[in-house]
Amino acid sequence: MTTTANKTALVTGGSRGLGRDMALQLALKGFNVVLTYHSKSDEAESVVKEIKSLGQNAAALQLDVAKSETFDSFKEQLTEVLKNNLGVNGIDALVNNAGVGYHSDFKSTTEEGFDQMVDIHLKAPYFLTQKLLTVLKDGSSIVNISSGLTRFSFPGYSAYAIMKGGVETLSSYQAKELGGRKIRVNTVAPGAIETDFGGGAVRDNKELNDNIASLTVLGRVGLPDDIGGVVAFLCSDDSKWVNNQRIEVSGGIFV
For the chain, which residues make up each domain, given as ranges? Predict the structure, then answer.
């Protein structure tokens, strides 16, 4: 196994749910981690403490990915934290994970809800990554988080899913245009996971949970710790020859 000593990853939305497990799995892989949170600093600091208990360094920064006008100031804060807290001058991996759900059938989707999905799930990974190009080291890795809903369809997720389709196209263009710097870009597309995402529907609605499990080859819905290890692998040198790939992590739904 190749070493990740002194490597640093940035995980957006790393204080809860899938992002939390990604941050912890990266720490177990030997990365120091900077994670962002939207509003709950206590949750973020809890993850920071867990990472430090694993022997890695960590820090948390507030970021609302829906507000692209804040990306310049975030970059400045990140640069300071990297230098002063972690003793490095750049990041080796970027995980564009932060997001929220939006559930509404096509005929009822509002323009406001649609625009929110654009800002969070499409503009954020596009323009935040653009802002951070000078912070990303040559030879680094970008992982964009998509969704199984780009391959299969469940009613009520059109606005969310088409943004994730855009993310997958973005990954291909980033891989092509950043390849000269040896930056790899891959997409992870989780299936339905038991978290508080989307109001915790998959976790808390037994009928929905059972239905998804019945459609999945492995006979259950996903758990947060089903995803983080895949992301950590793609951030590490263990995947140094994996580029421009969409990896669906869904247990084999609709096979």
Answer: 8-188+223-249
Strand order in the sheet with 184-190: 58-62, 32-37, 8-11, 91-96, 136-145, 184-190, 246-249
Catalytic pick among 37, 102, 160, 173: 160
- Dihedral pair phi/psi, residue 167, rounded to 5°: -60, -40
Mean pLDDT of each 10-residue bin along the chain, 255 residues long? 73 95 97 96 97 98 98 98 97 97 94 98 98 98 97 92 98 98 98 68 66 87 91 98 97 91
What is the amino acid identity at position 148? G
Q: Which CATH number applies to 8-188+223-249?
A: 3.40.50.720
Residue 160 annotated in active site: yes
Q: Which of 44, 132, 92 is nearest to 232 (CA)?
A: 92
